[in-house]
Specification:
There is one protein chain. The protein is mostly helical and about 70 residues long.
């Protein structure tokens, strides 16, 4: 696995969250991106710890991604 895989997954949560803004709430596509964002939230930290690539930047990026996801 690449060194920054967890950060890429975290960054994808930001993208998925922003994309959710373009769909009606509770529409099927909204749910798809909601589930993708939620899944990325579940696995990014596990991957970082498992591959021993956890970093301060990754932790801060995760916090920002969570804030954007929760806000949307």
């Amino acid at each position: 696995m690449r060194k920054n895989t967890a950060n890429i997954i975290t960054g994808s949560r930001i993208v998925f969250s922003i994309v959710m803004l373009f769909f009606a709430v509770f529409s099927p596509l909204f749910f798809v991106f909601y589930l993708l964002a939620g899944f990325s939230d579940m696995i990014d930290g596990k991957i970082a710890r498992k591959t021993n690539t956890a970093s301060e930047f990754g932790a801060k990026l995760d916090t920002v991604a969570d804030l954007i996801f929760y806000t949307v």
